Amino acid sequence: MDKRETVIVLDFGGQYNQLVARRVRECHVYCEIYSYKTDIAKIKAMAPKGIILTGGPNSCYEEGAPTYNKELFELGIPVLGLCYGAQLMQHILGGKVERADKREYGKTEISVDTSSALFTDVSPNTTCWMSHFDYISRLAEGFVCVAHSADCPVAACEDSDRKLYGIQFHPEVLHTPEGTKMLYNFVRGVCGCAGDWKMDSFVEQSIRTIREKVGDGKVLCALSGGVDSSVAAVLLSKAVGDQLTCVFVDHGLLRKNEGDEVEAVFGPSGNYNLNFIRVNAQQRFYSKLAGVTEPERKRKIIGEEFIRVFEEEAKKIGAVDFLVQGTIYPDVVESGLGGESAVIKSHHNVGGLPDYVDFKEIIEPLRDLFKDEVRKAGLELGLPDYLVFRQPFPGPGLGIRIIGEVTEEKVRIVQDADFIYREEIAKAGLDGDINQYFAALTNMRSVGVMGDERTYDYAVVLRAVRTIDFMTAEAAQVPYEVLNRVMNRIINEVRGVNRVMYDLTSKPPGTIEFE
Ligand code: XMP
Q: Is the pTM of this model over 0.90?
């Protein structure tokens, strides 16, 4: 594969590290996140065009705080430190970092030196997002201050000869309106990246790499009908044609009618010339899940069973070497495999994999992409809009939207409730506006009254969120009339439900799914 220009983000545990990578990619420069524990030899071998050190929750002068080898700053590769990263750079190179009397947090006006390469085309007085206790009280030799605020003597600094830069605030968040420009200045200006990371080149390059890797081997693709696996399947089909077989497992945890819908699009009567196999494995999953209530165990069971079903299908086809999965970058990072962030949930495609997988190799062609980039790739491959812009649906499906034990009866309830909810959201014209919305089934039964009779039934909860990156989200304000209509229909049409609730929680502290 051609060597592509890469910028590396070294993760010191900051909450915005994924955003840093996204912003860099928005500048058409490919970017990957690595832990600060990554060996310097590995970094040298990757020969990045630039390195960005993220923020983090620690104080760099404390015993045991995350740090890095001083040699990093002597490689001749431009380095930009952000917040903790900026402080650490100073600390390592001989500057001084101290605790401020009070935390500087929120939107702050700063004055910048527009002759600095970081601030080309940035307004001399601009707004930024600050979030720090510590501050740089003395600069290391060779550095000059290029931005300050009323409370922060060094909001940015540079040693332009050594191409070392530090920014005390967070240019990656939207609260710093000119932040992307600053990152652009670093990656395109200081690092000299050409900016040729584009979707058409991604698609072309992936097709080439896949062909090389697969040769005349047989490939099995796990197709769920979601955006990620659909894009992966079509990409693979372009690369290896009928060496590819797509297996769609109906695990009985899909949304209402979804199995038939997926078959209609990708099956023999659909538009894609795929070897499509549908496996109806509903009962197999239900029996594995019987009596299991712990969320992580449910996820692992569903993940493992998935792989076992594929293996069996592969054996039937015979001599299948490769398994394709639609894993995307946030799955990798959120599963704790990419960076320093804590494991929140083991996402189906990655953390849920059993240790032993009976394929020669797993191909994950979208492993480096963020969701919006996957969508761009989908459009590039000619997938229809309605598929490309589908709301996400998790691999473990309704299994993680049924709190507690999964039973066939509960699946029916949540499918029917969710169907009504989606139908009403679409009728109200809100589907393009809300990024993800679904019904879930709580594990709570309560007393109600219906037609003079006592009921003791389940409570359904409705969730709707607005989010850009699915890492943070806020509850959407669905109009009350719409919610009311949904409530009425669910109570009247779905047997086993006598209460409907609306989830107001943002992420954090909640997550989007319930388990
Ligand atoms: P959470 O619940 O972690 O969800 O806030 C963030 C986004 O990821 C989706 N999600 C998953 N997707 N496999 C997936 O493919 C999974 O195991 C999984 N868990 C959550 C979720 O629907 C939301 O869009």
A: no
